[in-house]
Amino acid sequence: MSELLPYIKGERVGRVVGITFDDGYLNNLTHAAPVLKAFEFSSTCYVVSDLMGTTNSWDAQIGVPSAALMSKQELLEWIGAGQEVGSHTRTHAHLTQLSSVLAHEEIVSSKTQLELSLGVPVHQFCYPYGEYDSSHINLVRGAGYWAATTTKRGRVVAGVAHKISHAQNQLPHPQPNPFELHRVPIVRSTSWLQFILKIATSYEDHHKN
Fold it and tell me: Which of 64, 78, 111, 121 is placed for a possible disulfide with 59 were both Cys, Cβ 3.0 to 4.6 Å?
């Protein structure tokens, strides 16, 4: 995501894809990292800082099977493979259900925890469950993150592309807010045809939520 920001800001032009993973699952390291490295792709994995080396305990109440999360050492391997770590709060929190004090702790302290533990700067954030409001955006910005992703579907059309469309008297795309970035979901049930449509066409523009 950090490498993608110049395109979002309009400082560079091109059709690019940012690859992200939520939660910090161990299978990101064992399955995804070798493939990413083989194709010289980078990606960002959003990590729940208090739960490194444990499991996705936040999913237990809704019956989702337990799965291992990367430990500190495994996250260092992830970084060593050319990948980026972002924050996904301390506990995978429902931010909109927290007081301002607790929301601040989840957003700001997770950044500090990850940076001290892993020895790298953490510039990226992802809102757990896609839940946030303007106060959380302000907290993310104030904490020093560069950008934040949501669970809202859609492609990001940005920067120079916006200026070109306006110059051609076409309906301009709104400038993207780097702290409310939409994403294109690729999940286990996504077929190859859907994958191609999502990545190479305007498919996602008609399936926003």
Answer: 64
